[in-house]
Amino acid sequence: MKTMNVSLVGVGGQGILLTSDILAKTAALAGLDVKKSEIHGMAQRGGSVISQVRFGEKVYSPIIPDGTSDLLVSFERLEALRWRHLLAPGGKVLINDMNMTPVTVSSGQQAEVTDLDERLRAEYPSALYVDALAVAKEVGNTRTMNMVLAGALSVLTPFSAELWHQAMQERIPAKLVDMNLKAFEAGRARAVTR
Question: For the domain that residue 67 is a member of, what is the CATH number?
C-alpha cells in the first residue's frame, strides 16, 4: 500500500495526541510501518496542536510535507482553515463542527474570523462534518469527544473497527475503555450515515 498521511489538528486539551496514538497503534497492529510526529505549541493554553501519522509498507520520515496529507482531521473549525496548506489535492477532510475562540483572538492579538462558514464551504466543499461534542453528550461523557472523532476517522482509513478497538484497549485505561468504545462506535455510525 502507498504511504498514507494523516494530519490531526486542533487546540490543546482536545485529545488530539491520544487520538493520533490510537491511529498509529491501529496501523501498527495492521502490520504497517508507522511514523508519528507532534507539535504542541502552547497546547496547555489553548494553542494549536498538530499531530501527524504516516503509515505504509515502509515510512522513512515522520514529517508530512505541505500539500501531501491524504486526510486532514480538524478537532475545531478554525484550525481546519489554519492548516489548509497540509491537504493533498483530492485529500479528505473531517471537521469537528465546533468553534473554539483561539487565545490570540480572545486576548485581542488577532481579529476574529467572521466569514468562517463561507470560507470552510469554499475550501472544503465535500468535507465530512461531525458534531462530536453533541455525540459525546449523547454517549454520556463529553470527554469522549476525541473518540467520537476517531470513530468518524476510522471509516476514512483502510482499517477494520476491530483493529481500532484493539488499539483503544491497549492505549486507554481499562476502566474507561467501554465508554470510549461507545463514543467511537457512535462517531463511526455518524460518519457512515452521511
Answer: 3.40.920.10
Separation CA 141–CA 163 (nearest Å): 23
Number of domains in the chain: 1
pTM above 0.85, yes or no: yes
Over 91-133, what HEC string results?
Answer: EEEEEECCCCCCHHHHCCCCCCCCCHHHHHHHHCCCCEEECHH
Nearest to 80 by CA among 51, 112, 123: 123
* 31: DSSP letter: T
Give pLDDT tens digits for 118-127. Answer: 999 999 999 9
Cα separation of 10 and 12, whole Å?
7
Q: What is the pLDDT of residues 146-182, one digit of tens each?
A: 999 999 999 999 999 999 999 999 999 999 999 999 9
Strand-pair category, 128-130 with 48-56: unpaired
Residue numbers of the domain that contains 101: 4-192
CA distances from 75 to 58, 81, 170, 176, 178 (A): 28, 12, 23, 21, 22
